[in-house]
Amino acid sequence: GDSRGAARASSDLVAYKNVTDLPAVRDPMIQVDQKNEAILLPVSGSTVPFHVATIKTITSNSDNRTSSIRIVFTVPGTPFNPHDASTLKFQSCIYLKEVTFLSKDAKHISDMVQQTKNLRRQVTSRESERAERAT
Amino acid sequence: MTDGHLFGNILLGGRGGTNPGQLRVYSGGIVWKKQGGGKVVEVDKSDILSLSWLRIPRSFQLGVKAKDGLFYKFTGFREQDVNSLTSFFQRNLGITPEEKQLSISGHNWGDVELDGNTLTFLVESKQAFEISLADVSQAQLQGKNEVVLQFHVDDTTGANEKDSLMELTFHIPNSNTQFVGDESRP
Q: Given its phi and psi angles, is residue B73 left (phi above 0), alpha (psi -120 to 50 degrees) or beta?
């Protein structure tokens, strides 16, 4: 495509190139892969990666007994999500919009939120610098 | 019954984590026994609807779809096992396993496929994840464009997973012609 010059669309960001690059997760739990800029989610006994660029917000909620983590992904047509090349190209696709997990470990959940937020910030600033250089 | 293949340390996967055990594949079907006793999964040859291979990190996963709608996932096969088992299945069961690919791009858009009791989210035609609709406690429309699936949460200590999926929402744009709203109700 037209990846030269213009800013990269979010769809050009890819978490992994090969299946063998994906870390093997022994126990089903949420993990952050800093190197590949991905959050790994346990869904039905499998590990599913999502690039942090697809994440709009990540929040946690804890009371005495339970903790939960909620991840909202970017979808087309929502406020503050400009129509970039990716949303136009994939506008008829079905999007995973939101997931909520319950957790037994409040500390783990707050770590995951913090790590994801930091990683997301790094990726966003790198991509906007990249876009600026390109213009 | 000396025919067939025996594999140790094969994990039976699903919600609530995985359990190691021994898997035997023979001309009559597939039997998995939990290590140290307990759970046994037995799928008779005549009850197998389809088989599939999925390459996952460090190993291969055998998917066994039974005619009663249940779907079993066995993990821990090596590449050479895939080859020998594939020819065994073809010869003895008359089934060629479908080769599936795992989506690793980390993208959140794709297609939803419903097949029997299984919902698959495909990204660029590769499998991102599968959900058994038996695990869904409630499905509802939210607004015009969203489908919310709520999952049974096992809050007993029996589940060995630390984080369990509770709710999942799909966004279906107006331009999508596949009407998932009704179909996804279990």
A: beta
Instruction: Give the CA distances from residue B28 to residues A18, A97, B5, B33, B43, in Å, rounded to whole numbers and listed in that order.
Output: 36, 43, 12, 16, 9
Percent of chain A residues past pLDDT 70, beyond the cut: 81
A103: nearest CB among B56, B162, B172: B162
Q: B104 and A46: CB-CB below 8 Å?
A: no
From the list A21, A92, A100, the residue facing B175 with the nearest CB is A92
Total domain count for chain B? Answer: 2
Same domain assignment for residues B138 and B173: yes
Question: What is the number of CB-based contacts under 8 A between chain A and chain B?
Answer: 173
Closest residue on chain B to A73 (Cα): B108
CA distance A109 to chain B (A): 9
Instruction: Please tell me the distance from the alpha carbon of residue B40 to that of residue B42, in angstroms, as a whole number.
Output: 6
- Looking at residue A58, what is its pLDDT? 98
In this prediction the ipTM stands at 0.85
Same domain? B153 vs B117: yes
Architecture of domain A10-123: Roll (2.30)
User: In this complex, do B166 and A68 lie within 8 Å of one another by their Cβ atoms?
Assistant: yes
> pTM of the entire structure?
0.86
CB spacing of B180 vs A95 below 8 angstroms: no
Give a yes or no: residue B106 inside a domain.
no
Average pLDDT over every residue of A24-37? 88
User: Is the predicted pLDDT of residue A4 greater than 70, yes or no?
Assistant: no
Question: Given B100, B124, B140, which residue is the final one in a domain?
Answer: B100
Chain B environment of A28 (Cβ under 8 Å): 17-18, 161-164
In Å, how far are A11, B123, B126 from A96, measured between CA atoms?
14, 10, 15
Q: pLDDT of B26-42, one tens digit each?
A: 999 999 999 998 899 99
Range of the domain at B168: 111-183
Q: Domain locations in chain A?
A: 10-123
